[in-house]
Amino acid sequence: MSLQRLYKAFVAVVSSRLVPSASPKFQVATPLPQSTTRLGPNVTATSLVHARSRCRMFSDLPLDLVLEIMGWCSPHDLLALQNACSTFCSLLLNNHHIWRLARASGFPLPIAAPSEEWLFVTPSATVCRRPTQELPYSYSLGIRLCSASCSYYLLRVCPGDVDEYIAQDWAILSTRPDNMDDVYALMLQATPYLEGTAESPMYRPSGIHDALKELYAAANSGGLDLLELNWKQRAAAMPIFMAMAETLQDATRRYRAKKELVEARNRSLLAAIARENKVTFDQLITSRTLVRYVNTFARDLTCMTLQAWATISEACLAEIQWLRTPKARIRCTLCRPERKQTYTWAGLQAHMRAIHPELHSTIALKVHICALCPNATRFPRSKDLKYHVRNVHSSTRTDL
Hints:
It comes from Mycena metata. This protein is mainly α.
């Protein structure tokens, strides 16, 4: 169901790009990125056929986009996405922005995408906690099942036969009764027919209601048993899905290797920038703006350039200067001369409110002290203090 809704949103977005006269009711005004793979009116059927021959699905997608797709789709959705429409896969592979445009036109995001550790590290089953090599049952909910009894106990479509059905594994299930609370909570969700509903109020109530009706109808329909059909489908799809998992691991490995090279290149550039501006490397990376930009470049596998540094250099150097500016410690002139304790400006205000409350409102508030001067210069007006700090100390600090 989630795949069909996403595909409809995708078709609406792509049709609006290919045919300018088409204007679906949920048209998105998000600007397209300026790249050579941008869709436009000149896209022809021939280009789509050539794109189909280059379809490798997950091999060239960024890791963050792969995790996002897995947060949206169940394993069956991924198999259907790869096998049912290769043109859709090719367009998604060669135009990453289409996924985000379709996502903006469709339903809200799940609460979070799965982590790398959960995908690639051998975990335990959700119900019995036994180590398992089985494929995930649900990515967005983080469910792994090791046997049909675990699946039956999780879905619980026929509660009257629970004891009879799981008798063979009851000894193992009873050894970990503490995790049953989590399983009961998962039973209340519409799994696996609606991904991303666990602890998430973002989905529309009507969508959850439809998914629950679908789950009830599938559980009570005649013919082949739901669990038996489920496991037969998973057994048939195992080779294809294992190949997809290996492709994901290779893509993750290449992504991390490229990211390490980009980070090393960016560190060498930052070291040169630090020497040019006569600051240490540790002082340079104290700028939050610089750290945010560097992390963004590393995530996108792009080396930072001097042009990028020129756009943020003024803000970064101002942050570094603000952090390097020392805060003078001031003596309280209202205390006895033999008292040698000194305070910062904030500490002095707290001291005067606590020790000299009767003088704080009449004297202290009328005297403005420069916390940057070693001798704590006083000024009768606040604008005089600001003029002094701006011209003498060349600072714009406002916390003095």
